[in-house]
């Protein structure tokens, strides 16, 4: 009876926008998402949500959703059965593989997909197709992992509240990671010294004790390192390799007054945390920031380390699941005509010439610019239709719960299994938890995630929430200090995607921006 109002139900899940990992409760009426409210018991956000978490919860449902497989016939998409779509994809892929080899195939996966979905997509690419071209368009080309061992934050967000100095580099924090921004604001109000180093003015400058807008060159971080070294700080040979060449590379660097001031505050503090945005700081800049933390001895302790803010809800999980290739290498192969078949799970890319592909398969929620160029489009789902886990920028693994049914009847992980099984893979996972068991067995830092049924757990699951307390993540246990040449400190462009663009359109429509 349509006149009887539906009961409102409520399901706890995780925000799908940025990598802070705020907890939210989605209210539904029937299969309709009606509201997003904060989870007051959340240990991540303490019951706060930014505008995206609060109002962007149903962006994935907006517009015309893809509800069935589509195949391009005579230049137009036609709805087809799963069997027809998958048979076509498998045959065409096998033909490409037999003519050019499996290296002519590539698989990309979104960092908004869950760990379980990314794990399956990577398995599909690496093991079933046999290609090492498994990547994300949002993948990064090196950074702090070259110095420390892990491409991950060493410390947690809450430690910002009780450190002594925060060095915030290349971050528009209230725009990109607002709830961490609020923690930094609270820390500054409590007396934690805040230093911002940005190419632009940002809200955080208003709370800062010192703000620097340096020339866009890694030289500025080198200046700070040099000043730290001149103050007498040097790492022991037991803790770090590569100090001599690093010091040598700093010989001709002239230390500015602002770099000296930063170095003084940073070295005088017993505890200090560097926070930077990986989407805005170059790989060389990130390496130097890691060098700085190691040289000054501000790593491997509670309230002392590096927090690396990644862009999307599961950018950390992407790395953890072994998708570590940056897009540039894949693009070079594509432009050289070496890649002939590509599977894109949930990403929309602009500016890439995909016309040389013989086969493009895209899974997405909408007919994005990329999906429009595909031969086959498979329906994808939004976070509200998904179960599994996301890993935030503080290495916190949290559980998403499916709030509404998948629009096409299949969730993303089920579609990836269908695709893989069309190649004879016989993957038999029956739920996200079953995939977690495989993740737990394959990925040492995730060992035990299934048993740890708590709402939230940091990796390494049975280890300390602070990384590098005993050793760095290299065979010899030492940090590997890097020397970098001249180059920019900040990136010229940052990635946005379909979800973010839809949200911006929504804000414009509501005349909020
Ligand atoms: Fe979502 Fe990030 Fe905002 Fe938290 S800070 S509500 S995770 S967009």
TrEMBL record:
It comes from the Bacteria. Residues 8-64 form the 4Fe-4S Mo/W bis-MGD-type domain. This is Molybdopterin oxidoreductase.
